[in-house]
Amino acid sequence: DSTLVQTEKFKALSYAIAVQPLLELSQIGQRAAVRRRY
Predict the structure, then answer these.
(1) Can you give the pTM of this predicted structure?
(2) Alpha-carbon distance 13 to 3, whole Å?
(3) Distance (Å, whole) CA 10 – CA 18
(4) How far is CA 11 from the centre of its chain?
(5) Is pLDDT above 70 for 16?
(6) Could you write out the three-class secondary structure of the chain?
């Protein structure tokens, strides 16, 4: 049971690490697109 919990935590952690920069990039891209539009 504990190993399963550790695996899930690891998955969540690695997912967060992988997605965080993507989210930041998309936000930056959206801001740049808005700036370009106006």
Answers:
(1) 0.49
(2) 15
(3) 12
(4) 13
(5) yes
(6) CHHHHHHHHHHHHHHHHHHHHHHHHHHHHHHHHHHHHC
